[in-house]
Design a protein that fits this description.
Blueprint: H1 5-14, H2 23-34, H3 40-57, H4 64-78, E1 82-83, H5 96-102, E2 104-105, H6 107-120, E3 125-128, E4 135-138, E5 146-148, E6 154-156, H7 158-169, H8 185-202, H9 206-219, H10 224-236, H11 240-253, H12 260-271
Parallel strand pairs: 1-2
Antiparallel strand pairs: 3-4, 5-6
Helix pairs in contact: 1-2, 3-4, 3-6, 8-9, 9-10, 10-11, 11-12
Length: about 270
């Protein structure tokens, strides 16, 4: 794949151990591809400034709940960050610069802001990739609480997460331990890009879908489903040699996949082109 400057910066940032990746920078490099005039340092400064203001408000007794309440007070009351219910699938909700400018976003992008503020005040938190709704939690053993950055920093207990999950899916859902497991920085970025991929698929924006897939593959080179999706997209775009490469690689590694027969039919059509 040809790497734009933004893509090169993204790759350089993620091409290191997960705990060394600067999440804010990586997210801004994702945005840089859409907003080439974006001033990276200006948005890092915004996060620094928010953290400085929160730090000044911290009470002498820095208990976790009090720290969370202080962050919540500044982010959601003073700065009026909020979840974008009105236009949830607006792609701007997934770009960190836009989230900071507009002070609205979706669960994962608002969680990213929260995580970055918490990191800057030395209060470690982690992302929680619950299906359908991203959460965060303090990163210490037996914390027992979760924070919903989309809903004003609401504090949730596991029982609340169970109810939230059932509400999202419209039916009773069993809360499995894996649903509340922390995600890596790469997984968080991959989920953000997956959201963009889904939005652009809905908008039938092939080039932007391709951009999202290719960055997911930079994060996870062995992601076979992304490789398959890129091959199908290449086929639809008339980029037949690239389509063949991806689809053949997919079948080589997943010969018994449920869609293997359909992919073989697609390759047979490529043979006729």
């Amino acid at each position: 794949m040809d790497l734009t400057i933004a893509r090169q910066l993204f790759y350089q940032e993620i091409n290191q151990p997960d705990n060394s990746i600067d999440l804010a920078k990586a997210a801004l490099y994702v945005a840089l591809e859409e907003y080439p005039n974006l001033e990276l340092q200006a948005y890092l400064n915004v996060l620094d400034s928010i953290a400085d203001r929160v730090r000044l408000r911290l009470p002498p007794q820095n208990y976790p709940l009090r720290i969370i309440q202080t962050i919540n007070g500044y982010l959601y009351e003073d700065l009026e960050f909020s979840g974008n219910d009105a236009d949830y699938y607006d792609p701007r909700n997934s770009f960190l610069n836009q989230v900071l400018d507009r002070r609205t976003g979706i669960p994962i992008s608002l969680s990213l802001v929260y995580l970055e503020v918490a990191k800057r005040i030395d209060f470690p938190m982690v992302g929680i990739g619950m299906p359908g709704h991203f959460l965060i939690k303090p990163d210490f053993e037996d914390a027992g609480i979760f924070v919903d950055a989309f809903n004003g920093g609401e504090i949730l207990f596991p029982e609340d997460c169970q109810g939230r999950l059932s509400q999202i899916y419209g039916q009773p859902m069993e809360l499995q331990p894996a649903f509340l497991a922390p995600v890596s920085t790469r997984q968080l970025l991959g989920r953000m890009l997956g959201n963009l991929k889904a939005i652009y698929l809905q908008q039938r924006d092939a080039l932007r879908v391709l951009g999202a897939i290719e960055r997911i593959l930079l994060l996870f080179p062995d992601a076979l489903l992304e490789r398959r999706d890129r091959g199908i997209l290449f086929y639809q775009m008339g980029r037949f040699s690239e389509a063949r490469h991806d689809l053949e690689l997919y079948l080589t590694n997943a010969p018994n996949a449920e869609d293997a027969a359909a992919i073989r039919q697609l390759l047979a059509r490529l043979d006729r082109n």
